[in-house]
């Protein structure tokens, strides 16, 4: 499971790294995001109607309507921000988005917590010459329109695919880790068949990852 990550990339850097034309940049005046939580603003890369890459903002978490178990009346919807790989092809909640609406989710690190009161926060990322080498999560997206947070809203929502952890992440979170895509697989994830895309889902190689920092109270990767 991943409930916190960072994207400290400047807007122009995202356009250059992920081959997005300026006209297809829908972020507005975007700022680096050292802490992205569920329900927060999450930049993603999707495809426009002509198959070109588009950079846009999303609400991190598919909106799942809820009803009170007591009254049966609608209550605040959930934001489901992780999609398990073993549910993508069988769950109606995920299947259509995986088959037709895949996206790239730019990031510079992700966080997992270990222990409680106090928890120790571990910020994972890639090895490289830069302090925080950029990468992307495998993501999916869909539209939501309806009552949300006491108002009628229209949202692009996104969720990150998770899979079993590699050896580095397993020491902190023994169950899941987000799927990280190598650059040569970005196009396959966006344009490929569901079968080809699903074949990319695997733990990222341990030897290419590192822990950038860890400690109590580190709920932001501002470094």
UniProtKB/TrEMBL annotation:
Q: Name one GO molecular function term.
A: hydrolase activity
**UniProt cross-references to Pfam families, sorted A to Z:** SRAP
Q: What is the lineage of its organism?
A: Bacteria, Pseudomonadati, Pseudomonadota, Alphaproteobacteria, Rhodobacterales
**Does the keyword DNA damage feature in the UniProt annotation?**
yes
The entry's family comment says: Belongs to the SOS response-associated peptidase family.
Q: Which organism is it from?
A: Yoonia phaeophyticola
Its recorded name reads: Abasic site processing protein
Q: Which UniProt keywords apply?
A: Covalent protein-DNA linkage, DNA damage, DNA-binding, Hydrolase, Lyase, Plasmid, Protease
* Record InterPro entries: SRAP, SRAP-like
Q: Which PANTHER family would you find in this protein's record?
A: ABASIC SITE PROCESSING PROTEIN HMCES (PTHR13604:SF0), DC12-RELATED (PTHR13604)
Enzyme Commission designation: 3.4.-.-
